[in-house]
Every structure is written in structure tokens, then in C-alpha cells.
Amino acid sequence: MFTERQQQIIESAVILIAEKGIQNLTMKNLSKAIGITEPGIYRHFRNKFEVIKNILVYFRIQMKPAIDELEKEENCIDCIVNFITAQLKIFSSNHHLAKVIFAEANFQNEEEFKNQKQFEMIDEQDVREMMNFVNEKKERQFKSVIL
Questions:
Q1: How far apart are CA 73 and CA 38, in angstroms?
Q2: Which residue has the higher pLDDT, 27 or 143?
Q3: How many other CB atoms sit within 10 Å of the CB of residue 97?
Q4: How far apart are CA 33 and CA 134, in angstroms?
Q5: SS3 for 80-121, per residue?
Q6: DSSP letters along the chain, please?
Q7: How many separate domains does the chain show?
Q8: pTM value?
Q9: pLDDT value at residue 18
Q10: What is the pLDDT of residues 63-119, one digit of tens each?
Q11: N or C: which terminus of the chain carries fewer CB neighbours within 10 A?
């Protein structure tokens, strides 16, 4: 999904936000951190907003294998445990990402991010889908016990 350079920019942005706060994420600071010119960053991302939006996409891509595994697991409890374990592995190997994803304060004071539905990591539809998934698993388990 991302080019090697885009991934480098995203990962550097994550570190910059985690260490210095979102207000210090500027294209100038990002270019210094990476060692490329500002126009080099603009070739990949139009602005700071797009960089941050893609941090969330990057997170979702890293979570995709764990989400795909949910479909394979028959036991509902095992399913949830495996999903949480996968998240912990991702966050333990990239503590900067965890700090950015879970620090809602990073996004609260930025005017561009206010009222931006796409920045909600878990929205109502995600919750409904997860609940439907869990209920289907429980129903299959129940039927297998009865039969």
C-alpha cells in the first residue's frame, strides 16, 4: 500500500508526534528528521493532515492479519484473546505508534481534526460489526454444543 519512502515518512511522523507532540509535526520538522527536503515529503503527502490520516491507515494495515485471523477462530473467547494478543505484539514492538494511537489529546486541539469522522479509530459501524461477529461465533458454539 505504501511506498518505502511513504512508510519512512509515516514512521518518522509517529516518532515525532510521540516524542514532541502533534503541534511539532510540521513538514519542516519531518523533513529534518528524515533527512530529505520538504518538497520530497510533499511528493508523497499533500499536507500534515494527510500524513496523520495515513498513520491511522498504517495502523489498520498492521492490524489486518489479526483481523483476518478472527474469521478462522471458532472459539469466541480464543478469538478475542488472540486479537488482543496481536495488538499487544504490534504495540510492544512499536511503542511510539501505541502512544500516538491512544493519545486522543494529540488530535483534540488541532482545528483540522475537529469533527473529522475518519479519525475515530472505532466508530459505531466498527462496534456493530465486531458485536455481530462475536454473536455469530457464540451462536455457532452454542449450536455445536446442543447438537
A1: 46
A2: 27
A3: 21
A4: 43
A5: HHHHHHHHHHHHHHCHHHHHHHHCCHHHHCCHHHCCCHHHCC
A6: ---HHHHHHHHHHHHHHHHH-GGG--HHHHHHHHTS-HHHHHTT-SSHHHHHHHHHHHHHHHHHHHHHHHHH--SHHHHHHHHHHHHHHHHHH-HHHHHHHH-THHHHT-GGGTT-GGG-SS-HHHHHHHHHHHHHHHHHHHHHHH-
A7: 1
A8: 0.68
A9: 92
A10: 888 878 777 777 777 878 888 888 888 888 888 988 887 775 555 555 665 555 554
A11: C
d(CA 113, CA 105): 11
pLDDT of 5 reads 96
What is the spatial distance between Cα 62 and Cα 76, in angstroms, rounded to a whole number?
A: 22
d(CA 97, CA 9): 13
Full domain range(s) for residue 124: 4-146
Q: What is the pLDDT of residues 5-49, one digit of tens each?
A: 999 999 999 999 999 988 899 999 999 999 999 999 999 999 999
Task: Read off the CATH number of the domain in which 79 is found.
Answer: 1.10.357.10
Is residue 60 scored above 70 in pLDDT? yes
List own/partner pairs for 125-133 with CB under 8 A and 24 or more apart.
133/70
**R_g over Cα of the chain:** 19
The sign of the CA dihedral 38, 43, 49, 51 is negative
